[in-house]
UniProtKB/TrEMBL annotation:
Family: Belongs to the OadG family.
GO molecular function, one term: sodium ion transmembrane transporter activity
Gene name in the database record: oadG
EC number: 7.2.4.2
Topology with respect to the bilayer: Single-pass membrane protein
Gene Ontology biological process terms, A to Z: sodium ion export across plasma membrane
Subunit composition and interactions: Heterotrimer of an alpha, a beta and a gamma subunit.
Coiled coil region boundaries: none
Main localization category: membrane
UniProt protein name: Probable oxaloacetate decarboxylase gamma chain
Lineage: Bacteria, Pseudomonadati, Pseudomonadota, Gammaproteobacteria, Oceanospirillales
Reactions the enzyme catalyzes: oxaloacetate + 2 Na(+)(in) + H(+) = pyruvate + 2 Na(+)(out) + CO2
GO cellular component, one term: plasma membrane
NCBIfam families associated with the record: oadG_fam (TIGR01195)
Length: 81
């Protein structure tokens, strides 16, 4: 019985050791692959959005009638609920 128990412990140690070594190797290989991919295939840099010119205080508004109509319709629809 003692021999069977020691064989079980040995098999358990080898199995757990193999899993530990495999997972450790997997972590390192994944890290190396990640560095290689980011080095040779970098993400494209998005262009900065163009800023719209700000209206000057006191200047006449540029035909905002359509915008006012859309906002008014949205407010009326929201209040109608």
């Amino acid at each position: 019985m003692d021999n069977l128990f020691s064989e079980g412990l040995t098999l358990m140690a080898f199995g757990m050791g193999f899993v530990f070594v495999f997972l450790t190797l997997l972590v390192f290989v994944t890290g190396i692959m990640s560095r290689l991919v980011t080095r040779y295939f970098p993400e494209p840099v998005a262009a900065a959005p163009k800023s719209r010119p700000q209206p000057v205080a006191g200047a006449p508004a540029d035909n905002n009638d359509e915008l006012v109509a859309v906002i008014t319709a949205a407010v009326h629809k929201y209040r109608a609920k």
